[in-house]
Amino acid sequence: MSDIKRVGVLGGGLMGSGIAQVSAASGYTTTVREVSDELCARSRAAIAKSFDKAIEKGKATATDKDAALSRLAFTTSLADLASADIVIEAVVEDLGVKSEMFRELDELCGAETIFASNTSSLTIAEIAAATGRADRFVGMHFFNPVPVMKLVEVVRAIKTSETTVERALAFVASLGKEPIRARDNSGFVVNLLLVPYMIDAIRALESGVASIQDIDKGMMLGAGYPMGPFTLLDFVGLDTTYKIAEIMYDEYREQRYAPPPLLKRMVIAGMYGKKSGLGFYDYSKNPPVPNDIGV
Ligand code: CAA
Ligand code: NAD
Is the same domain home to 173 and 260? Predict the structure, then answer.
């Protein structure tokens, strides 16, 4: 049984909104911190929309939705997370941004508060180093889309106490998720294997192996993946994938993690994938069509 009652979520983007939704749906008083009122409103709308889909699929009722939304608050002030029992960070994949937020929160939160990061590729130890509570700092890596994906990687870093890991495991179970324990190596279990696969698909496209659509179709129909690699890249976010690949390449100095030039060019051009409306596919069309990126 989890001893946690109040949850703070840093960031109301793709992942922060999903984490907040699942937390509120599981009965926790949940406060999301975003950087502007506009982004707070956008996160609330995304959560309401996802609940509507859950209702449509028979996974929740309108009463569940209303109850969960009544447990959710949005703020632009970090101080509003001071009374949280756990703070789960899901802001942009950037060590400086994450460290700065935790540094401030370390002064504001109580001694028992657990700090958790949803980072995809940074090591937990390097984020925890910004705080005086590395023993109460854990990795808590959710998967996109959070309301649907069952897995959460719980990561014990070099100074994390076993008590903190156990509190984190109990909390993850209380969300109806399946935890696995992972070591604090960049990419943990899933991204260590998934990131080279996604990057390889871009390299295959660059070298003219097949079209975006045919590579996607190949991996769906030939290997049983629910989405092809380009649909998945657009879904994860090309900006986020680029940052993840850079961080993993820097950590391991292995070519298999190096971001391909095409990925970099697309990010520079503002093609972030589904969230910006354009990536490997053009989402202004229904159904989306492959983007003409000249390869
Ligand atoms: N809330 C709750 N449940 C929902 C829901 C919602 N908003 N929307 C859908 N569901 C449920 C559905 O009821 C259905 O459940 P059942 O299987 O019990 O019927 C299930 O979720 C699938 O829903 P759909 O049938 O609508 O969707 P789909 O079949 O088109 O699948 C998908 C959608 C789950 C996203 C699937 O395409 C998929 O698994 N894609 C791959 C996703 C993936 O690989 N994610 C990991 C990305 S990497 C990452 O996250 C780590 C990182 O650090 C980058
Ligand atoms: P996103 O782009 O949807 O959201 C980014 C969030 O960061 C937003 O809330 C934004 O307001 C905030 N942000 C940006 N700059 C900021 C700043 N300077 N100060 C404070 N906040 C700032 O990204 P996302 O996909 O939700 O990713 C968030 C985290 O989750 C990243 O660490 C990412 O690696 C990780 N993650 C992503 C996925 C995925 O599939 N997208 C899966 C698992 C983990």
Answer: no
Structural contact between residues 159 and 134, judged by C-beta atoms closer than 8 angstroms: yes
Q: What is the 3-state secondary structure (H, E, C) of 118-145?
A: CCCCCCHHHHHCCCCCHHHEEEEEECCC
pTM of the model: 0.98
Ligand 2 pocket residue status of 238, Cβ below 6 Å: no
Token pair listed for 167: 């509190």
Helix (H) or strand (E) holding 181: strand 178-183
Is the distance from CB of 33 to CB of 11 less than 8 angstroms? Answer: yes
Catalytic-labelled residue, pool 50, 118, 120, 186: 120
Q: CATH number for the domain including 128?
A: 3.40.50.720
| 247 pocket-lining for ligand 2 (C-beta < 6 Å) | no
Name the phi and psi angles at 235, rounded to 5. Answer: -75, -40
Do 50 and 33 sit in the same domain of this protein? Answer: yes
Sign of CA dihedral 284, 285, 290, 295: negative
Placement of tokens 């569940």 in the chain: 64
How far is ligand 2, taken at its centre, from the CA of residue 12, in Å?
A: 8
Please tell me whether residue 208 adopts helix, strand or coil conformation: coil
DSSP 3-state assignment of 72?
strand
Are the beta carbons of 43 and 74 closer than 8 angstroms? yes
Q: What whole-number distance in Å separates Cα of residue 55 and Cα of residue 192?
A: 34
Q: Which of 154, 183, 212 is the last residue of a domain?
A: 183
Q: What pLDDT digit, counting tens, does each position of 49-102 carry?
A: 999 999 999 999 999 999 999 999 999 999 999 999 999 999 999 999 999 999
104 is catalytic: no
